[in-house]
Design goal:
single chain, mainly alpha, Farnesyl Diphosphate Synthase, 15 helices, about 0% strand, globular, binds geranylgeranyl diphosphate
Length: about 300
């Protein structure tokens, strides 16, 4: 392993463990009433997940010299929206899956009504966190951050992308239609993670934000293309969720539409676009560059 790689692994491990502690303290304790709901919220959020969105927020925060406590808060908010989306996505009325992060999905471990409430409560808690305390240099900026997260999660972001996904089952989409779906379903929250991390810092300059936005869009789409490739290539044991499910459910994916070789090469192109977007940002963007590589080269 090269030194740069070892250093990246260490950085990633430290952000992941910091986030585990932060999430555990933002979530209500399992014994607090209603204990079943709080226990299930913790089950859905803690001990699992690559924490890609927090990693992106922390990396973007290096550009604007964002304080660690603010990064923990915005990352926790984004990760709670993400966890809620996974809980609802796994329910019988949507993807109907029994395995997530290597353990039974929330509606299997608890029940459907609890899973629904877990998602609702995690989403509310995310907005409570992002509007509490001082997370930006000015109150207007913090308001903008809450607005950004709401837009990313809503009908013109992730929830809208999920609707397009549900409508697309059993159909063939064109590549631009597939891209439109994923820019919303997966890309919107990833973009929000990058921008929120950046906006936490008092040194968040406008021209850097434009570059970051370009980076976030490339990485968001790359994440999904790789997700489709892994759904085709990897095993259920490696992924911790049911592999090969999209094709079984008749869902259009980059692999079903482009073929596996073209999907792999698209992931490589998006990785190059992400790197190009960082041009001129210097060493402070090193973690973002490493994360683009991690997202494209990951095996799980
Ligand atoms: C229910 C409103 C609503 C939205 C659901 C994100 C989503 C929309 C559904 C998840 C289904 C899915 C497999 C999407 C593909 C990309 C994705 C978000 C994968 C899971 O994210 P990771 O790999 O998961 O970051 P971990 O477990 O590592 O956090």
């Amino acid at each position: 392993m090269k030194i740069a790689e070892t250093d990246f692994q260490a950085w990633m491990g430290s952000v992941q463990s910091r986030m585990e502690t932060a999430l555990a303290s933002f979530l209500p304790a399992a014994h607090v009433a209603p204990a079943r709901l709080h226990e299930a919220m913790r089950y859905a959020t803690l001990e699992g997940g690559k924490r890609v969105r927090p990693l992106l927020a922390f990396a973007a925060g290096e550009l604007s010299e964002a304080p660690r406590e603010r990064l923990e808060a915005v990352s926790a908010a984004v990760e709670m929206i993400h966890a809620y989306s996974l809980v609802h996505d796994d329910m019988p009325c949507m993807d109907d899956d029994v395995l997530r992060r290597g353990k039974p999905t929330v509606h299997v471990e608890y029940d459907e009504a609890t899973a629904l409430l877990v998602g609702d409560a995690l989403q509310s808690l995310a907005f409570q966190i992002i509007t509490e305390g001082k997370l930006a240099d000015r109150a207007e900026r913090q308001l903008e951050m809450a607005h950004l997260l709401a837009a990313a999660a809503g009908s013109r972001g992730m929830a809208g992308g999920q609707q397009i996904d549900l409508d697309a089952t059993g159909k063939t989409l064109t590549v631009p239609e597939l891209e439109f779906m994923h820019i919303h379903k997966t890309g919107a929250l990833i973009r929000a993670a990058v921008l929120l991390g950046f906006l936490c810092g008092d040194q968040a300059a406008g021209e850097e934000r434009v570059k970051l936005d370009r980076y976030a869009k490339a990485v968001g789409l790359a994440f999904q293309v790789v997700d489709d490739v892994l759904d085709h290539d990897a095993s259920t044991a490696t992924l911790g969720k049911t592999a090969g499910k999209d094709s079984k459910q008749g869902k259009p994916t980059y692999v079903s539409i482009l073929g596996i070789a073209a999907a792999r090469s698209l992931a490589g192109e998006l990785r190059a676009q992400a790197h190009a977007a960082l041009d001129g940002l210097g060493g402070r963007a090193a973690r973002l560059a490493q994360l683009a590589d991690f997202i494209v080269l990951r095996k799980f």
